[in-house]
Amino acid sequence: MLQLGKSEKAFEEAKRYMPGGVNSPVRSYRSVGSNPPFISSASGSRIYDIDNNEYIDYVLSWGPMILGHANPEVIASLQEAIPRGTSYGAPTLLETELAKKIQAFMPSMEMVRLVSSGTESTMSALRVARGYTGRDRIVKFVGCYHGHSDALLVKAGSGLATFGVPDSPGVPKGVAENTITLPYNDIDAITKLFNEIGDTIAAVIVEPVAGNMGCVPPVPGFLEALRTLTKEHGSVLIFDEVMCGFRASSGGAQKLYNIKPDLTCLGKIVGGGMPMAVFGGSAKIMSEIAPSGPIYQAGTLSGNPIAVTSGLATLSILQRDPTIFKQVEEATKTLCEGYERLAAQYNVPVVVQRVGSMFTVFFTDKPVHNFDDASQCNEAHFKIFFHHNLSHGIYMAPSPYESNFVSICHKHSEIERTLAVAEEAFKIISNHV
Ligand SMILES: *Cc1c(COP(=O)(O)O)cnc(C)c1O
Q1: How many angstroms separate the alpha carbon of residue 401 from the centre of ligand 1?
Q2: d(CA 410, CA 400)
Q3: 119 Cα nearest atom in ligand 1
Q4: Does the predicted model carry a pTM greater than 0.85?
């Protein structure tokens, strides 16, 4: 059985110094009613805690580690970079190289700006959209999470839903007022809104594959409708591909569904595990940013040489061997099909949703198209599944409203082991009902 003595102690101490003992809420395990393992190291598909437990990791730092933890080539490039200094606050060759590489994966990103977190990237993309259009209103979808900036912390996804907080104190009413929220995948709702007030909307921001209410693909026609409506009304279409960017396909959701957004936000994989994110898109819009245009945006550590090195090394490996995307997707598919087969065998109502190498096991009997559907899921079943996994060395997201991820290091034998543990969990759940 799982021993977490040192982690329990560490958590008690951490709680005295940090709110809830953590630096990001979902890490606290509050929604699964237990305490989190404290991590000491990670390598390949494995993550280790301070009690010397070893887990097969499907969280992967919430997505970034598609090459597995501590990829030798990425680590070597960091070791080479660090002695040259960790920050200059001045231009480097690396930044242009990374910008070119990003454009090779996503041609819609004609110009980019590097920032330090996904939150910063979506916040800045919105300012650019508002500055460019001269309009204030934005549209987001319920259950999509775009980071924690004021304008976007309105009916956001996983973290908030998990904690049952519909909104956050500290977000000014005046800011929230300009954020219109609609159900995800509801083509009629967005069409009606644009017919009424489309000409006052600066931007529509969307996770083109939602990952923050669990993995929810766009229904056919949804992204197409967003593209058509925003174009007709002069609004900016922002794809927040921070999570799905190098997960849905090599070129993200925009390549998979063949839709060209005006602006794209990237994070997670693009930094290869370092704090880095990007926003970018049409040169016409991006040229409005200072110093070439009037819209202000800046960052002391933006384009940090260590973070950029990590991102560059990661993208270089992915570019050199594009079969990586296929391999990771295949492994994810095998896992998801296994979950479906075993759940059916034990009569546990489960819907497994997957796009590329991101997936969620929903404990429900009908497809999940939006946040309402996701919140119908059986949380008791999820908790049994989660805890059985954790105590048998399978590390998954501690919330039913999250996506899980697979890396290139997850071997077939590990997928089999994961499914064997899942089978036991489904057996327990089927006896539970
Ligand atoms: C993770 C995430 C963010 C926020 O990124 P941070 O680096 O945590 O600020 C924004 N959008 C999406 C879609 C994400 O998955």
Answers
A1: 14
A2: 22
A3: 9
A4: yes
